Amino acid sequence: MAFVSTTAFRLTKATKATTSSGRSVTMMAEKSPSLPFLDRPKACDGTMGAADVGFDPLLLTEKLDPKWLQESEIKHGRICMLATLGFIVQEFVHLPGDVFSNRLATDAFNQVPKEGLMQIFLFCGICEFITHQGKVTYAEQVEDKGRTPGAFGFDPLGLGKDPAAFKKYQANEIVNGRLAMIAIGGFIHQNWVFKTPVIEQLTNLKPMGPF
Q1: What's the domain range around 184?
Q2: Could you state a single Gene Ontology molecular function term (predicted)?
Q3: Residue 189 belongs to a domain
Q4: Does the annotation place 176 within a ligand binding site?
Q5: How high is the mean pLDDT in each 10-residue block of the chain (211 residues)?
Q6: What's the first-to-final CA gap in the chain, in angstroms?
């Protein structure tokens, strides 16, 4: 554990305060709700929404802008929710042509023509440029202190009309995004190891070895 920062993994932190009577008392720092054996990071004080559970063991919020980090999490969560759904759908639905017929998502990716991948990456870049109003660097993005992370004005169902309900939806999105990030990682490695589509393996479970 010599390579791990002792600051990031400190177990307790005592602070001193003086009472009205002049007595000095020792107060223990608040613990992280998600990692109760660590102190709660200063930036993760619950002000960033209901999904803020004090999880920052590497103390990234002390080095980078917390709102920028939260937006990165929201954006990656959204991408992974779409990717998780896409992994399952493409097992059963395909575009016409042999190049799109592979049911194994990781192999199907390598069959997509180079021009097709370039179009996808170009589309993603244009979306980034437009939604951030041309501010593409970290320094430019953190300048706007009043911007709400992940808010791009996209609400076709009008879920934001009720502020109380909308806060719940925001927390649900972040939590489901976190789950999707774990899920897509599992899907990809499952495809690499077993060479079997996700649903097919799920419906035909077999022992991993001679037990």
Answers
A1: 67-148+161-199
A2: chlorophyll binding
A3: yes
A4: yes
A5: 38 48 58 84 81 87 89 94 94 86 90 89 91 83 81 85 88 95 96 92 74 47
A6: 35
